């Protein structure tokens, strides 16, 4: 293996330095993964280290598999036995051997989040706790916080003292832990905690595992948390540890990752050396320029000067579309253009990335319409998501009392209608040859329901009937329906922000449908239109565009990358800013940096005008676009508007800025307005003499008469 031809000088030093612990701090695309791979190969092939004494911890299973493959390619069969896996897999492997010391069998069961939810629901019934008072999701978070802070259930009960809410949670925690122990179950936290507990308390097992590894590598070290760090410390007594990371790519702080572990590595692991890799091999000069300019705006960072020898390259393109639909169309057209006109490029070289999963909806619909196959990594296609299916079922019930829709939603949210009651309703429907909904409403006397269920059913039926009679525009009827049937409350109680965003995105889809089908914007037509997307099971031809959230894209690379939805409030996310202020903003910026640096040949950034149902405000371009400067980037489409510049005038509007007379045919989408009561807004739809205007919160979206005196057009 000739490392001189495979690696640059610093990379080679990093791959071959074995005299002490090693920290490799490296920018995006500078060959971190490549260096770890060749370091392992070097240890086996050139140094003759027993492969079984080499450990490499990666962040995802995908990364582990890729690294294994690459090591095998280089060293062949000699590499077998090297342990390359995620930290959770390492713990499972460890526990299967040693958990018997805690009186667990080695074939314990691992619980995922769905299992956790089911268990907590069960415990709530036993302990008579209402999920509306303590949501299941918040309970899962509480349990996880107790555990990672190493607070035992007994201690939690003591700490809760007389505070009844806290005491209830502590009791659930106790019952949860007891149940798991009785049934030999482990949740994800337990995998790490139990492994660390055994290593901390059983010196002979610790010694055995410490003697196992001579060389330990940890990739993506910027995203480790306290327990992972402790585990690496424990295992490293006789080993040389090599950690690799990029502090600018810390994107999991919300899950306990702490960038200080890589920054302070030199204090705990002695002696040590740090090597910095600053040559980027992945991206063109322009992609790098734009990414560097952005990340420089973060104040909490180690300055690195990432460079590339691939100067220039295609400009980064930022496109502002008139609407989300147009944004998606622009992306799809560009993709077709690239695939048709660039030699050897196919769909698999292209990725579409977004900040939040709900943002995939519009682009999915456009790709389906154009017959471009796509895959969503780490998630479900929009119309397959549970909450979207539930919401559409409610609409189907409003539209035509469909039985399948009825069955899907009758007990979501819970109305005390279980399998038996449903069978009872089905029988009544069969006897009378009517729909399930009619059976429930017209023959309720034949159905056995508790008083509580009767009340819940009444609320449901009233909500459905109200929606049927509604004269509101469809998207408003839908919004009201989701509130009236208790669906939004259910999601709020369960702290399911992402699912709520998907419901708002579905509302946007209904709104868009009305705008484009002014002639017959009926619910029936909408449902028919949408079935094209819900029944879409494309045949896998192996050629697909990859769609994923930026968190999922960590460590990956693609020739062409589109990052969509770059609107202020969406990316950076308003929630991160509200919850974590400047720290939240810096993490969002790192996320944008990760997204931009996934691109090899060309990067496209898009956003659109109009109104966001998720942030409930008019859309303007993300500050990140403003921050990347003007070098290496060109703008197309509408002129980007930023919060700091021309969008919201700081002073009150002067008379001269106002156009006095609002002639009806003067209006167009994108016009800025000032309204005497609602303040400033932007026109999102012109419908003869009625304007849909998106105002800043709290006013939101309003339909107003174009020539009303309260409304003034502002000069653009
Ligand atoms: N010395 C080199 N010669 C040629 N190609 C290289 C070299 N070093 C890295 N590369 C290539 O550059 C790209 C980025 O490398 P790699 O994925 O290892 O970077 P990374 O630092 O792990 O990236 P990130 O942290 O952004 O995910 C890969 O395609 C890799 O093959």
UniProtKB/TrEMBL annotation:
Gene3D superfamilies (UniProt xref): 1.10.10.160, P-loop containing nucleotide triphosphate hydrolases, PCRA, domain 4
Family annotation (InterPro entries): DExx_box_DNA_helicase_dom_sf, DNA_helicase_UvrD-like_C, DNA_helicase_UvrD/REP, P-loop_NTPase, UvrD-like_ATP-bd
Entry EC no(s): 5.6.2.4
Amino acids binding ATP: 26-33
GO molecular function: 3'-5' DNA helicase activity; ATP binding; DNA binding; hydrolase activity
Domain UvrD-like helicase C-terminal span(s) in chain numbering: 285-555
Ranges that cross the membrane: none
Source taxon at top rank: Bacteria
A GO CC annotation given for this chain: DNA helicase complex
A Pfam family annotated for this UniProt entry: UvrD-helicase
Catalytic activity reported: Couples ATP hydrolysis with the unwinding of duplex DNA by translocating in the 3'-5' direction; ATP + H2O = ADP + phosphate + H(+)
GO biological process, one term: recombinational repair
Keyword annotations: ATP-binding, DNA-binding, Helicase, Hydrolase, Isomerase, Nucleotide-binding
UvrD-like helicase ATP-binding domain span: 5-284
UniProt key word Transcription regulation: no
Family: Belongs to the helicase family. UvrD subfamily.
Name used for this protein in its record: DNA 3'-5' helicase
